[in-house]
Amino acid sequence: MPYLSQKSDSVVRDRVHNPVLFFPNDDAFFMHLDDLLESQLALPSMPRVIALVLSELNRDEPDLRKISGNINTDPGLTARLLRLANSAQFQMSQPISSVSEALAVLGLEQVRSLTMAAGMAVAFKRVPGMDMHQYWRYSLDVAKLSRKLAREARANASTAFTAGLVHAVGELVMHLGMPDQMRSLNAQALPISARRAATEHALLGYCYAEVGAGFATKWQFPQPIVTAILHQMAPFDGAVCEPLAGVLHLAGWRARAREEAWDEGTLADTFPDEVALTLGIDIDEVLMQEPVQWTSAPEAAAMA
After folding, report:
1. What is the pLDDT along the chain (304 residues), one digit of tens a residue?
2. Angle between helices 48-57 and 108-123 (to 10 degrees)
3. Cα separation of 213 and 219, whole Å?
4. Residues in CB range of 40: below 8 A, 6 or more apart
5. How many other C-beta atoms lie within 10 A of the C-beta of residue 205?
6. Domain 6-44+127-303: assigned CATH number
7. CA torsion angle for 198, 200, 204, 209 (degrees, to 10)?
8. What is d(CA 141, CA 286) in angstroms, rounded to the nearest whole number?
9. How do the domains of the chain map onto residue ranges?
């Protein structure tokens, strides 16, 4: 199940030179998906403060003061949450400056998702083989693009932002669970390469999408986000019809293209036109040089 269409993948293969490495033909070399998702090394425990927040949010009548108080006990989590809240609501005239204000402006469900995303950044602070500054730059770009494209597709822009932010968490899980194997795989296709998903599927039988959906399920992310992460590689394949996954597909493709500095010809040749057509999104909205305000180095560093 390649990230790009067969046409797109062949074009990228012709234009981007990657060494072909030997991988042992041994099932034990890579972990099976179920084993990976049960590995305590691969899946960090949910931070206690996140568990407390979720417990309160799951009550019939959540206490906003308790939620705010719990989040404020962790300065790092609070800072990341406020940065995400302001990025998610960048059109506001005044920035959100406190957790209580975020709850009032964003509502419980969006604060739930953004708090979990911020907690994920805390849990995956250091991951062997991953450039975390690049990872968060790319992920924030996908989040911003997802928000923009969701509006074009008449989908929930807030949910799309969070889904975009966490859509590639499977890479972090895989690097924690199989650091040596991922080091070998990275030599063939870097984690942010457009060919990454296809390479992972060829070698493992699964990719970061399935892993990410498993992680999101265990961390109790909302089901629409879990489903979008799972189907982001093929959002309209067969019986599958997942518009939010389609938004992730387009946003991830565009952000990876930027990371790899594709020229206009490669962008046009590899554009996932079937996904865009199904969503009713204009190609120019995706291909323009600055479709969103790309993530700055300080923004990425604040999450890493």
Report:
1. 444 444 444 434 443 334 344 444 444 478 899 999 999 889 998 899 999 999 998 899 999 999 999 999 999 999 999 999 888 765 677 889 999 999 998 889 889 899 999 999 989 989 999 999 999 999 999 999 999 999 999 999 989 999 999 999 999 999 999 999 999 999 999 999 999 999 999 999 999 999 999 999 999 899 999 999 999 999 999 888 999 999 999 999 999 999 999 999 999 999 999 999 999 998 888 888 788 889 999 889 989 8
2. 170
3. 10
4. none
5. 13
6. 1.10.3210.10
7. -90
8. 12
9. 6-44+127-303, 45-123
Residue type, 39: S
Q: How far apart are the first and last CA of the chain?
A: 30
Position of tokens 């990876």? Answer: 256
Global pTM exceeds 0.90: no
Closest CA to 165 of 146, 149, 151: 146
- Can you tell me which residue has the tokens 């042992």? 24
Q: Please give the single-letter amino acid code of residue 155.
A: A
Q: Which whole-number Å values give the CA distances from 148 to 1, 75, 250, 256, 298, in the listed order? A: 26, 30, 11, 17, 22
